[in-house]
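Slide 14.
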Amino acid sequence: MMMANQAKLSDMLTVTVTRDAWDWLVAVATLIVAPLSLIALVVGFRALYQDNVLASNADDALVRERRSTFELAILARILELCALSLGPPMILEASSRSPRPDPVFPSQEAALTRCSRQQRQSGR
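Slide 15: predicted structure.
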């Protein structure tokens, strides 16, 4: 019974396929745009990879700069402590920081003070 209904239905419908210039234009545009979109995806992923590499390099440079700044601050503090222990007041007046105890590194300051006292006692 089902077959008879389907046969009747297909006899009643007539499908005519026509293609005009717009259909061909859409087909050609699709064939052109599909590879270009794949190329755009590849270029986009490459740009993201390059951005990640540049960001990683910038992070490494920032870490190196902060490490250098910290080391220079420690060296400046050592210079201040040596200037205090050796006595020339001109170095202290020219420096930008005032001679005050550093609460962050009290053990280092104590060691430097001990070292400067030993240098004064030994006559260096």
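Speaker note: The chain is about 80% helix and 0% strand.
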